[in-house]
Amino acid sequence: MKKFFVILLALTMVLTLAGCSAKENGTTETQSSEAETSKEETSEEVETVVSEVVEESAEESVEETEETAEAALMTYADFVAADVDTAVVVEAYVQSAAYNAEYGNVTLFLADQDGAYYVYRAACDDALAEQLTVGAKICVEGFKGEWSGEVEIVDAVITVLDGADTYVAEAVDVTDILGAEELAEKMNSYVAVTGAVVVGYNEAEDPFSYSWDGSGAAGSNSDLYFNVEVGGAVYCFTVESDENPEGSDVYTAVTELQVGDTIDLEGFLYWYEGAQLHVSKVTK
Q: What pLDDT does residue 71 have?
């Protein structure tokens, strides 16, 4: 905008000088000489002003660019404070990657030393998927989203940071804060729940269900859903088949559960109208 005004100022002065030149035709030689001198002095003043303004504008542009670059990369606190639907850029470490080659996307749980993130269906191909190993550091550019309480990054573009350090988060025990408001602060983190008791999932008191509504079956690679009781409250947890497919250790372990079993669990603290652990490990 400042450059526009500089150009406008220059054009104005040029037109003014042109007008002065036109009027000189009716002046005496002395007047013409004085006008020419005045015109030259004015031209020099315009050049000086334009030069100063352009230089100042360039310096401000550099400063603004540097500030924008610094603000582009967010800390976890910055991400939490950002409004939904705003652009976000974070660097974090892969903790879990669920790649869908058919649809060309990947869903990720990420973490750094300060918090955790959930990236929903970012564009991905086979070559990129091979680099998304647990512990790998990546940069994610996208938009902050929220769905049924789950805070996520959507429409994301992923860049693997070659040569960066690696990081794998340890499970944080959240047994004592299940149901508490502070549990949401651990959203998307890798957590542990101990001493959970398996209770019936449906009216038939089945220990688990193939798909949330029982529409799945063995051999269909359906998600598994099951209920546990902790501290007198009942929670619904799941094994997501795109994260841990049928045949994996945790999938098999859940299909072998019985009502009344006491188990310890580890997984990622997803949120769907409340805490819904994506289970990755079960120990009786």
A: 44
| Tokens standing for residue 233 | 């409250």
Say which residues have a Cβ less than 8 Å from residue 264's Cβ, sequence separation at least 6.
192, 193, 194, 195, 196, 282, 283
Q: In sequence order, which residues have a C-beta less than 8 Å from that of residue 179 and are 6 or more positions away?
A: 231, 233, 275
> What digits encode the pLDDT tens for the residues 155-171?
999 999 999 999 999 99
What residues contact 82, with CB distance under 8 A and at least 6 apart? 74, 88, 144
CA atoms of 159 and 10, how far apart (whole Å): 45
Q: Distance (Å, rounded) from C-alpha 42 to C-alpha 122? A: 60
What pLDDT is recorded for position 141?
A: 98
Beta bridge partners of 282: 265
The pLDDT of residue 21 is above 80? no
Q: Check whether 262 has a pLDDT greater than 60.
A: yes
Q: Report helix, strand and coil shares of the chain as percent, to nearest 5.
A: 35, 35, 30
Which residues, 6+ apart, have CB-to-CB distance to 158 below 8 Å? 106, 119, 122, 123, 124, 128, 132, 138, 139, 140
DSSP-assigned beta bridge partners for residue 153: 119, 144
Query: CA 197, CA 255: separation in Å to the nearest integer?
Result: 15
